[in-house]
């Protein structure tokens, strides 16, 4: 091993941001294993050795380690106190004596092995650096470029790595065209045998949240708070917002001047409808708001069962329920309450029926 190699190694360590001591220790451990494998038959003391590599010159020395004993039972691992004193008067019983046993041609074996270990360690370190970089972005938004589709999976270029949009993370009927740029939500970053694996999503409610944080400064600054989101990707989302400053209208801030802010998000989500709802501490008011755009006449809540009975005008019933029950379903997810909707005439008929039963 020469100084030129050590210099190149240190430069590489600096460039890749890897611990220099870790590299040297790893090489020394690998050289111990190599020595035991290649010299066990030649040198019986090969089973108990230490390898040292000089951090500046790259010189390698192999030392057999023996325990100082009053009486020697095993020549391979033990040395008598008399013999130890001959090497150095400082040795005493139970001390470890190191005797150099470096083979003449060991430098060549070491050089080859060191290069392999360094290459492997650098690859591992690079993988860890990339993994940590993307792990910090978990549950955040990232821009990806579509690469290809294969067996229902969509592969995207995320910069240093490829990400995967699984079938359940794809917006229904959304076309993924080669080289198209998309905003994606990082659902999970795993460290696999081949490095970091990143799962991204177009359907996660977190994508809507992060898009609003990007578009609305008041949300990013914490003036306006997103309290909850419910989403049926590709069709409709509801987002409940609240302002910590009475002078700031949370809904107006999210909509933006002439609807520009929310329109940018709608465009990114390929025309998915977005209802912005004002959050309220009062369950009755929150549930009423959540059923927007329908107008609610009354809300009766059951706190114990977290259920609510809602009454709307007859002409508002289908709007409140929504196409295939979507509006009420999203409202229930948004508020985390069970919602039972009836029209005014249905509610009156039910009340009359109950009163008649009581009278009977």
From TrEMBL:
Single GO cellular component annotation? cytosol
Q: Which SUPFAM superfamilies match?
A: Nucleic acid-binding proteins, Prokaryotic type KH domain (KH-domain type II), Transcription factor NusA, N-terminal domain
| Chain ranges passing through the membrane | none
S1 motif domain mapped to chain residues:
139-203
List where in the cell it is found: Cytoplasm
Record text on subunit structure and interactions: Monomer. Binds directly to the core enzyme of the DNA-dependent RNA polymerase and to nascent RNA.
Q: Which PANTHER family match?
A: TRANSCRIPTION TERMINATION FACTOR NUSA, TRANSCRIPTION TERMINATION_ANTITERMINATION PROTEIN NUSA
Q: What does this protein do?
A: Participates in both transcription termination and antitermination.
Protein's name in the database: Transcription termination/antitermination protein NusA
**Organism name:** Clostridium paraputrificum
Give the gene symbol: nusA
């Amino acid at each position: 091993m020469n100084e030129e190699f050590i210099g190149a190694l240190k430069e590489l360590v600096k460039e890749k941001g890897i611990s220099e001591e870790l590299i040297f220790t790893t090489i020394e451990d690998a050289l111990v294993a190599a020595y035991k494998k290649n010299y066990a038959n030649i040198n019986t003391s090969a089973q108990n050795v230490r390898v040292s590599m000089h951090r500046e010159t790259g010189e390698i020395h192999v030392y057999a380690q023996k325990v100082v004993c009053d009486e020697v039972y095993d020549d391979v691992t033990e040395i008598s106190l008399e013999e130890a004193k001959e090497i150095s008067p400082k040795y005493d019983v139970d001390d470890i004596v190191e005797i150099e046993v470096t083979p003449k041609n060991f430098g060549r074996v070491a050089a080859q092995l060191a290069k392999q270990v360094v290459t492997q360690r650098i690859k591992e370190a690079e993988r860890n650096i990339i993994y940590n970089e993307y792990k910090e972005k978990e549950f955040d938004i990232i821009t990806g470029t579509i690469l290809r589709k294969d067996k229902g999976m969509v592969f995207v270029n995320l910069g240093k790595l490829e990400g995967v949009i699984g079938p359940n993370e794809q917006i229904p009927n959304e076309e993924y065209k080669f080289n198209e740029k998309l905003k994606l939500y990082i659902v999970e970053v795993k460290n696999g045998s081949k490095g970091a694996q990143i799962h991204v999503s177009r359907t996660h409610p977190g994508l809507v949240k992060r898009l609003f944080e990007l578009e609305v400064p008041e949300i990013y600054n914490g003036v306006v708070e997103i309290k909850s989101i419910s989403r049926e990707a590709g069709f409709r989302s509801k987002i409940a917002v609240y302002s910590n400053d009475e002078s700031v209208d949370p809904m107006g801030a999210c909509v933006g001047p002439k609807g520009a802010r929310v329109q940018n998000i709608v465009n990114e989500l390929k025309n998915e409808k977005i209802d912005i709802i004002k959050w309220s501490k009062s369950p009755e008011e929150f549930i009423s708001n959540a059923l927007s755009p329908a107008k609610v006449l009354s809300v009766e809540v059951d706190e114990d069962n977290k259920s609510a009975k809602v009454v709307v005008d007859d002409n508002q019933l289908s709007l409140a329920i929504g196409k295939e029950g979507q509006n009420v379903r999203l409202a229930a997810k948004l508020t985390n309450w069970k919602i039972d909707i009836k029209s005014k005439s249905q509610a009156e008929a039910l009340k009359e029926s109950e009163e008649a039963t009581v009278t009977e």
